[in-house]
Specification:
The complex is a heterodimer of chains A (468) and B (97).
Chain A (H helix, E strand, L loop, with lengths): L10 H52 L22 E7 L4 E4 L3 H4 L19 E5 L2 E12 L2 E10 L1 H48 L20 H47 L5 H33 L7 E4 H18 L3 E5 L3 E4 L1 H18 L5 E8 L3 E8 L31 H11 L3 E7 L3 E9 L7
Parallel strand pairs in A: 7-9
Antiparallel strand pairs in A: 1-2, 1-5, 3-4, 4-5, 6-8, 9-10, 10-12, 11-12
Helix pairs in contact in A: 1-3, 4-5, 5-8, 6-7, 7-8
Chain B lengths: L1 E2 L2 E4 L4 E4 L2 E3 L3 H12 L5 E2 H9 L10 H12 L8 E4 L3 E4 L3
Helix pairs in contact in B: 1-2, 1-3
The chains are: A alpha+beta (468), B alpha+beta (97).
Chain lengths: 468, 97
C-alpha cells in the first residue's frame, strides 16, 4: 500500500490507542519504580553483608594468629550465612597465603578489581558472571602485625539474581496484563461512546424524498452530540421546505404552461375546422403571436430566476444616482398612473451601489405590483434611504394590503395572494425582485396592513464596494 | 422630417399636421419621432420601450399601447387619413394606409 492512499481515520481506534498508551506509560512508571526499589534494596542488603564479612576477616587477621586463624572464614559455605563466600589472602608480593578451597580455579586473582584503600568506606563490588552464577568481587588491603595483606572476597549472589529475574518477569507479566486490560476497557468505552453515531446514521439512512419528515430524536443523546442532532434536524427542516417549494413550483409551472398552450391549440384547431378568409387566418395568427409572447416572457423570467439561483459570482455593480434611476423607471409608469389618477411620490436621495439594469428591473416589478393593487386615485410612495452600509428603496402603496398568512410566501415563485390565478401577472414578479436582491447580498422584505396598504423594502448593501 | 402631411421638427421638439400644431407630451413626441424614423417599417413594442423610455426589458404592464392610443388621438383622430397602424401581436407602423 502506497503512502498517499490514506484510510479514513477512526475515532475509536485513536481513542483506544491513546488510552492504552497512557495506561501503558503509567504502568511502566509504577512497575519500574517498584522494581528498582525492590532490587536496589536486595543488593543493598548484600553489600552490607559483604562489608560485614570483610570486617570479620580483618578482625581475624588482626588477631594474634594472623592469616592462620582464618581457617573458619575460608570455608565456602558456613552455617548461618545465606550466601557462599570465597576468600583469598595474599601478601604484598602476590603470593597466596590462604584461600578458600577451589577458589584458584573458580575465581583466579586477575578477575578481581584493584584493591581499595582500607580506610575509606567500601565502594560497590564488581559484578562477574561465571559458570551460571553471579559473583560480587571486592578487594582491599589490610595491615596487621606489621605485614600488608591483600584481601579478595567473592560473594555468590545467584539467589538474588534469580529473584531479580523472577521479579522482573512477574512485573513484565503484570504490565502486559495491564495493557491488555486497559485496551479492552478502551475498546469497550469507545464502542459505547460512539454508539449514538451509529444510531444517528441509521435514522439518517431512513431519510429520503418521500420521508423528509424523518427527524433525529434528540432525547437520550450525550450532551456533546446534541448540537449535531439539532443541526441535522434543522438541515432536514430546510431541505423539506425547499423540497416542498420545489415540488410546488413544478406543479405550478405545469399549470402555468398548460393554459396558454391549450389556448393556442384550441384556436388553431377551430381555425382548421373549415376554410376561412385570409383575414380570419390573420386574426388567429396574431392571437397566437400574442400568446407565444406571453409564454416566452414567462420562460425568460424563469430562466432569469434559474440563472440567478445558480450564479455563484457577484453581479457587476456600479455606483449611480438613486433619484435619477428611480425617475427613469417611474417615467415609464407615469402615463398609466396619470390615467388612473394615482400619484407616485418620490423622496430621498443618495447613491446606490448595484447593477443598474437589475435595480431598474426590481423597482419596475415593485411598481407594477403597486399599480395593480392600488385603487384609482390612490397613492404610491417611493422612498430612498441611503446609509453608510446600505441603500434602501421602499415602495408603499395604498392598496388593500395582504393578510399576514400570505406574507411568508409572497416571494415564492408563482405564489399569488388571490388563488384565483387572475390573468394579471405571472406570479413571478416578487420572486424576481427577491432573486435580484439576493444576487446583491441584500434583502427584500414586505410589510402589510390589511386595508391600509403594502410596503416592500429592498436593501442593497454597500460594504462590498471595495471588492473591485 | 416629413411623412405625408405630418411634419416633425426634431430640433425644436414640435410636430404639426397639415400645418396644425400638435400638442404632444414629451413621450408622445419621442414615440412619434421614433416611428417616423422607421416609417413604413414595423416597430416592435420592445424596441419602443427601449427607445422611448430607455429600458432594456419589457415590463409586464403595457404602457406602449396607452401612449400610442393618446398619440393617435392627437395625430390621427382629427384627420381623414390615418398614419399610425397597429400590427397586432408585433408592433406599430407609421405609413399611409
Amino acid at each position: 500500500m502506497s503512502l498517499n492512499v490514506s484510510k479514513p481515520r477512526s475515532i475509536a481506534t485513536q481513542l483506544v490507542l491513546l488510552f492504552t498508551l497512557a495506561s501503558a506509560l503509567l504502568l511502566c512508571c509504577g512497575l519500574g519504580i517498584l522494581y528498582s526499589i525492590a532490587i536496589g534494596h536486595a543488593f543493598e542488603e548484600d553489600n552490607e553483608v559483604l562489608a560485614d564479612k570483610v570486617a570479620a576477616i580483618r578482625r581475624d587477621l588482626g588477631n594474634a594468629g594472623g592469616p592462620a586463624s582464618l581457617g573458619d572464614e575460608l570455608r565456602v559455605e558456613r552455617a548461618g550465612e545465606r550466601a557462599a563466600y570465597w576468600v583469598r589472602v595474599s601478601d604484598s608480593a602476590g603470593g597466596v597465603i590462604a584461600e578458600s578451597p577451589g577458589m584458584s580455579e573458580m575465581l583466579p586473582t586477575n578477575l578481581f578489581p584493584a584493591a581499595q584503600s582500607p580506610n575509606a568506606r567500601l565502594a560497590a563490588p564488581k559484578d562477574l558472571r561465571k559458570g551460571g552464577k553471579l559473583f560480587a568481587l571486592l578487594a582491599t588491603t589490610e595491615e596487621a602485625g606489621g605485614r600488608s595483606y591483600l584481601l579478595q572476597v567473592a560473594q555468590d549472589r545467584s539467589l538474588d539474581d534469580r529473584f531479580r529475574w523472577k521479579f522482573g518477569a512477574l512485573l513484565a507479566g503484570l504490565l502486559g496484563f495491564g495493557i491488555l486490560a486497559s485496551a479492552l476497557i478502551a475498546i469497550n468505552v469507545a464502542k459505547r461512546g460512539l454508539r449514538p453515531l451509529t444510531d444517528l446514521t441509521h435514522s439518517l439512512e431512513r431519510v429520503g424524498p418521500k420521508r423528509l419528515s424523518e427527524r433525529v430524536p434528540v432525547e437520550g443523546w450525550p450532551r456533546e452530540l446534541q448540537p449535531l442532532a439539532v443541526a441535522f434536524d434543522e438541515m432536514l427542516d430546510r431541505l423539506e421546505d425547499s423540497f416542498t417549494r420545489l415540488s410546488q413550483f413544478s406543479a405550478d409551472l405545469a399549470h402555468e404552461l398548460r393554459t396558454p398552450i391549450a389556448n393556442l391549440r384550441g384556436e388553431a384547431e377551430v381555425a382548421l375546422t373549415r376554410p376561412r378568409t385570409s383575414d380570419e387566418y390573420r386574426e388567429v395568427i396574431e392571437s397566437s403571436v400574442g400568446e407565444c409572447q406571453r409564454l416566452s416572457g414567462l420562460i425568460d423570467k424563469l430562466l432569469f430566476l434559474a440563472r440567478a439561483e445558480a450564479a455563484d459570482d457577484a453581479v457587476e455593480r456600479s455606483i449611480f444616482d438613486g433619484p435619477v434611476a428611480i425617475e427613469k423607471i417611474v417615467g415609464y409608469y407615469e402615463t398609466i398612473a396619470e390615467e388612473r389618477e394615482i400619484t407616485i411620490e418620490r423622496t430621498g436621495e443618495g447613491e446606490i451601489y448595484a447593477e443598474p439594469l437589475l435595480f431598474g428591473r426590481a423597482l419596475s416589478n415593485l411598481l407594477e405590483n403597486a399599480l395593480r393593487f392600488t385603487p384609482d386615485g390612490g397613492k404610491i410612495a417611493i422612498a430612498l434611504h441611503v446609509t453608510a452600509s446600505a441603500a434602501e428603496v421602499s415602495v408603499a402603496d395604498t392598496g388593500s394590503g395582504i393578510s399576514p398568512e400570505h406574507l411568508p410566501r409572497v416571494f415564492d415563485r408563482f405564489y399569488r395572494v388571490d388563488s384565483s390565478r387572475s390573468s394579471q401577472g405571472t406570479g413571478l414578479g416578487l420572486a424576481l425582485v427577491k432573486s435580484i436582491t439576493d444576487l446583491h447580498g441584500g434583502s427584500a422584505t414586505m410589510k402589510s396592513t390589511e386595508a391600509h396598504g403594502t410596503t416592500v423594502t429592498l436593501s442593497f448593501p454597500r460594504e462590498t464596494a471595495n471588492h473591485g | 422630417m416629413r411623412i405625408e402631411d405630418l411634419e416633425i421638427d426634431t430640433r425644436r421638439h414640435r410636430a404639426s399636421r397639415s400645418g396644425r400644431a400638435l400638442n404632444l407630451s414629451p413621450k408622445e413626441f419621442l414615440l412619434l419621432k421614433h416611428l417616423a424614423r422607421s416609417a413604413g417599417e414595423v416597430v416592435s413594442r420592445t424596441e419602443i420601450v427601449g427607445q422611448v423610455w430607455d429600458m432594456n426589458f419589457e415590463p409586464e404592464t403595457n404602457v406602449v399601447d396607452v401612449v400610442v392610443r393618446r398619440l393617435r388621438a392627437k395625430v390621427d383622430d382629427p384627420f381623414q387619413v390615418k398614419l399610425v397602424h397597429t400590427i397586432r401581436g408585433v408592433g406599430y407602423v407609421l405609413k399611409r394606409e
